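Supplementary Text 2. Reproducibility record for the structural model of the 208-residue chain.

All settings were left at their defaults, and a single model was retained for analysis rather than an ensemble. We include the record here because the model underlies the residue-level annotations in Supplementary Table 4.
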Amino acid sequence: MEDRSRFLATRRTDEELYERLNNREKYLPETVEASLEELKSRGESFSDELLKVIAEDMEARRHQAASPTGYDSLFNNSDKLKQVEDPDAPAFYSKRAIYAFCILFSVLFGSIMFAMNVDKSVKKINIIWVILYGIAFTAAEYILAQSLRMNFGIAFILGIAGAYPLNYFMWQSFLGKATLYRVRPIWVPLIVGVAISALVLWSMLQTV
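Retained model, structure tokens:
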């Protein structure tokens, strides 16, 4: 990651590099540090006081990212502390989005979104485990629905229960609890989810 950040810094203008230093709370620590080193290599000078402030800010940012963020849910987005605007950061669907899609559409749908996050990681083989989990949970949910009279309340609870392993155990294991990321827009999966739901509803009405 550091080598990539250093390479990207060499391709940016002085103005772009200074923008990353001046708005460093929006960027990855690696991006800020690479921008600083690139400016120094171009002959720019910085005071010892400023260098100390930047180093302390980056250390605090890493510490903040590694610290527990509390319980994330559909209504509480404490993971926002790990979100940045850096275009060099990996783009993930947020934990809040995964919760919402698990509840509204299915845990399988949410697991596919999470698998797309894992696709940005080094060990892409973990995608298989994520998808298998989504299939298994959705199958178990379907079997449960056959024996119980499902309602929105039960479906809501099952959606939360299904999203929890994705957003905690798998997120920490497959993505890293200290990983900073950009929030990926949800419009495409939302359109797909609504379209599939409409098709299923239409099919059900045709059989009535």
